[in-house]
Amino acid sequence: MSNLVLKDINKIYQNGFHAVHNFNLEIKDGEFIVFVGPSGCGKSTTLRMIAGLEEISKGDFLINGERANEKSPVDRGVAMVFQSYALYPHLTVYDNLAFGLTLEGVDDDIIDEKVNKIADILGLTPYLDRKPKALSGGQRQRVAVGRAIIRQVDVFLMDEPLSNLDAKQRVTMRSEIIQIHRSTHATTIYVTHDQTEAMTMADRIVVMKDGYVQQIGTPEELYFNPCNLFVGGFIGEPPMNFIKGSIKGNDITFENNSLKLDISKSRYKIADGDVYFGFRPEDISMYPVENAYKIHALSTLTEMLGDSTNIYIEIDRDTVILKVDPHDAPAMDVNFDFYLPYDKVYLFDKETEKVLEGK
Amino acid sequence: MKRKLEASELIFKVLSYTFLTVFSLACLYPFVYAVSSSISGAHAVDYNEVILFPKDIQFDAFSSIFHNNQFWNAYTNTLFLTVYGTIWAIGVSILGGYALSKKRLLFRSGFNFFLVFTMWFSAGIVPQYLNYLQTQKVFAAIGITDVKWLIVIAMGMAAMNIILLRNAFEGVSSEIEEAAIVDGATEFQVLTKVYIPMSQSTIATVALFFGISRWNGYFWARQMIAASGSPNEQPLQVFIRLLLEDYTNLETLASWTAPYSPNSAIYALIIVAIIPILVIYPFIQKYFAKGVNMGGVKE
Q1: CB within 10 Å: which end of chain B, N or C, has fewer?
Q2: Which of B297, B177, B193 is nearest to A87 (CA)?
Q3: Which residues of B touch A80 (CB under 8 A)?
């Protein structure tokens, strides 16, 4: 059982670079937490501080209420899966899986039993005698995951474990990791830059940018209630559309005034000023719906994806993407109308980039 | 389908193969000549009639060496110096190379500088000779007077080999080391269970360098053993040198009665001296071509 608390965690390197700023998070036992953000946002650094591979410059890291800043990785009871697999190339799959247990001095019979069990779960039994160089990328990543779970620790740390796999393998491994988490109930902290992985796997997501936590919440909270422009744009595929607008009275107008919408119908308390007008590509309808804005547009590009079609349009010089059913998609260079429900509009302050207060 | 070579490529290939063949033969010839001379009759050797193949074959030169107790004594000494010397030198070099490969090592760049400095700017023969004598005194002061152990311990450091090992250790992915640390490995276990097995090829190379230098060790062995005044301690190379001096001595030649030439005896001795290295080399060679991280990390 492991409850982890990160209190005002900071990472400042010797050269003065401040990589992580005041990171606060309480992780409950058995939770699947995903750190997500673009490259260089501090998510891997934070994970490495939790693992004990990186010193915590300021703040407290508590495991079950006990300060663990100075504890070695093995004393923290963590296992880690690395982005590059980090398998021992001179050892067979069997020995790679058994490495941690051997160091612990576990009896050979027990090691054998555990290795065979894990190999069976991960489909590695035929490859136990092979060395890593004789395995495919997916198999290597399975060995890396197996090496972590065999130790039956309380906390699993995974640093972009799927980023080196192809798209198909990623989907397979993603579901396997979820299954493993369900069966082990171990607290898992997973780092990724892929918002799809974050949304599909996490109990809670921590969105980071430039070393700062932007928002912590369930996938639903982040998707439906992003706290700022960055989170709104980062979560969701295709990303949320943003158009610079200006509110005056009840109306919002855009740069060349070709479009004017009654913004008082939105779910936000409005005041005169500059804002970002946002909406998700999938929230629009090609058919008239009640309580929705009717917007006229010209399709400049269409992308047929099979289950949906992305339509590119321009609203006041900003390119906007609409995601529609392929059967409803207009052809290229065609004028058409679409409908945006009032309650699907997001408004962000232009200065602070924070979402406006709700009504 | 095989591509037809262009004229320039063909010329380059022919020249390359010709040069390499000639070079290989030039390297091989002295060895073949030594073997042939060592088993040729006295007349053929003394009158330079041996060009490539042996003439009037005899094995008396080898037989006389194998019946020489001093030879076996020198051989045993050399084996002692080579085996223990290589083990000690490899051990010291691995620890040195590992420490220097760590960025967190205090004064790392300073250590590296002094190490490399000794490699580029050797002191020369006189300071080296004086150094041998001083080393002998220092070891005597701490109670190590056995000249063989003195040679093993005092000659156990080679800057070039430490740098080779340091570079090999630096090539090991830091994530593999971190994985071992998270798996519960101590610093020593990280070295023995990760770094050393992953650097086998370099360690084998360095071991071969050390082994050959110990086996062929002459100058320091001669100086130290001469200073200690115990001829029974002399290694093979010193023994060969003394025998060479003896066989080329006019007095020896004048009283020579053996059925083979003195040169055959020298060549036989040289052959016997290089055989162990020739035998060991193919076993070590297989490690040379191996890369360090092979499949362990996504490259």
Answers
A1: N
A2: B297
A3: 178-179, 182
Half-sphere exposure for B67 (CA within 13 Å, toward CB): 7
Query: Across-strand partners of A66?
Result: A63
Is there a contact between A99 and B294 if contact means CB atoms under 8 Å apart?
no
Domain parsing of chain B, residue ranges? 7-61, 68-288
- Chain A residues with CB under 8 Å of B183 CB are 74, 79, 99-100, 103, 147, 151
Backbone angles phi, psi at A218, to 5 degrees: -70, 160
Rounded to the nearest angstrom, the gap between the alpha carbon of residue A84 and the centroid of all alpha carbons in its chain is 19
Give the relative orientation of helices B262-288 and B200-215 as an angle to the nearest 10 degrees: 170
Q: Specify whether the CB–CB gap between B264 and B61 falls below 8 A.
A: yes
Confidence of residue B228 (pLDDT cuts 50, 70, 90): low
**Residue B295 pLDDT level (bands cut at 50, 70, 90):** low
Q: A61 with A6: CB under 8 angstroms?
A: yes
Q: Which stretch of DSSP H or E encloses residue A175?
A: helix A167-184
CA distance B193 to B180: 9
Burial (CB count <10 Å: 0-12, 13-18, 19+), residue A70: exposed
pLDDT digits (tens, 9 = 90+) for A147-185: 999 988 889 999 999 888 888 888 888 998 998 899 888
Q: What is the pLDDT of residue B294?
A: 55
List, for residues B66-116, the tens digit of each pLDDT value.
898 888 988 899 999 999 999 999 999 999 999 999 998 999 999 999 988
> What H or E segment, with its residue span, contains residue A78?
strand A78-81
Domain boundaries, chain A: 4-230, 241-349
User: How far from the centroid of its chain's Cα atoms is residue B87's Cα?
Assistant: 13
Please tell me if residue B179 touches chain A, with a CB cutoff of 8 Å: yes
Which pLDDT tens digit goes with each residue over B8-64? 999 999 999 999 999 999 999 999 999 999 999 888 888 888 888 998 889 998 998
> Given an 8 Å threshold on Cβ–Cβ distance, is B182 in contact with A135?
no
CA contacts within 13 A on the Cβ side of A313: 24
Level-2 CATH architecture, domain A241-349: Beta Barrel (2.40)
Query: Taking CB atoms and an 8 Å limit, are A88 and B178 in contact across chains?
Result: no
Superfamily of the domain at B68-288: MetI-like (1.10.3720.10)
Of the CATH numbers 3.30.110.70, 1.20.1540.10, 3.20.20.70, 3.40.50.300, which one belongs to the domain with range A4-230? 3.40.50.300
pTM of the model: 0.81
Structure token digits, residue B228? 């200690």
pLDDT of B297 reads 65
Residue B280 CA neighbour count, 13 Å, CB half: 16
DSSP string, A268-318: B---SEEEEEEE-GGG-BSS--SSEEEEEEEEEEEEE-SS-EEEEEEETTE
Two tokens at B115?
A: 């190490």
Share of chain B above pLDDT 90, in %: 38
- Using CA atoms, how far apart are residues B55 and A37, in angstroms rounded to an integer? 81
For the stretch B40-55, pLDDT in tens is 988 888 888 888 899 8
d(CA A46, CA A349): 29
Looking at the partner chain, which of A74, A88, A164 has a beta carbon nearest the beta carbon of B194?
Answer: A88
Q: Which chain A residue has its CA at the smallest distance from B182's CA? A: A73
Percent with pLDDT over 70 in chain A: 99
